[in-house]
Structures are given as structure tokens and as C-alpha cells.
Amino acid sequence: MIGSVFIIIVGLTYLEWRRRQAMATGEGYGTNLVNEPERVESKQLPNPLLAIAPLILVGVANFLLTRWIPNWYGASYTMTPDILPGIHAPITTTIKSVIAIWAVEGALLASLNTASEYGFVGMIAALPGFLVVSNALKSIPNPLVNAAVSVSSLAGITGSASDGMSIALAAMSDVFIKGAEAGTFRWKCCTGSSRWRAAAWTRSRTTAR
Q: What pTM did the predictor assign?
């Protein structure tokens, strides 16, 4: 909770400071905008509590399960040779003394899973089959369809959405950049419309690699 509050306060403060700086220097998208989204009527917007509901649900569920799970085991838990072959005598463990260890084990499991996923994705990207698929996807003529199909396909092959998308953008960057520079399509932004900025982002990612 402390970390979340810190991130919200510092993040919103920084964004507001940058917004004021941009307004003071006259930065903006101009007035000749293309594909400008329609204004949303603010009279019939959903209740803000609906947006906060998932966060509240996760917090409440985490709080309750943290207290319910130890109660399901009782004050102590006995491990017998029938349950865990290899031990010679029953082992009794006090649940209160291992709750923190269970939490650390869960955190380590998630971090090791993510680390292994990064390594697995790198191995997949180095295989010849990955190059065959990525080269075949470059033949799709429509840039938007090419981007959607390429990212989805390569992310599915690598088994990771985030890592697969990064590798897909790096592998297909030349196709995406050519489509953006040719001006064959435009991208709708939340604050206005501008030329597709993914090309610059992809170029920066490719240069960084």
C-alpha cells in the first residue's frame, strides 16, 4: 500500500508538472488534426468505483486468503512418510513460523519464472525456424494487418506476450518503419492524431539492441 501510494503521488505530480511545462512553452498537436476522436459526454460516464473495483477485489482477496490459508492447516502440520517418502519419522511444523517462508517462496517462484521466460524467448528467437516465420510474415502487404499478425504470431511462438512483442518489433522493424515513412497509415492517439510513432520507438529499440 505504501509503495502504491508513493507511485501514485509521485507519478501524478510528475505528469502534472510536465503538462504545465508543455502548456507554458506552447507545445501541442495543433489544430489541423486528422481522425480526431469524438468528444465523450461526461454526463453519463460510469461510476469511478467501477474502475477501482478490481484493485479493491485483489486487496480484499489477498487480505482474506493470507488469514484463511494458515487456518486451514491449523496451528501445526505433520508430514508423515506416507505423504513425503524418504523421511524416517513424522515432521511437525508450526504454521506461524513458516508463513513468511511461504510468501518468500511465492515471490521467488514468480521471479524465477520470469527470468527463465526471458532466457527461453532468447533461445527461441535464435532458432532458424523463428527466422523462417518472421521472414514469411513480412510478405503481408497491409502494414496494420502485418503489425497485428506479426506481433501475435511471434509472441505465440515465443510463449511470452511482452518478450515476444519486443522481439517481434525488433525482427519486423524495417517493415514497420517503411510503412510509417511511406505515410500509408496513421495512428489514432488518445489526445489527437499524429503519424504512427511506433516507427521511432521501434528504431530506438533496434538501435539499443
A: 0.40
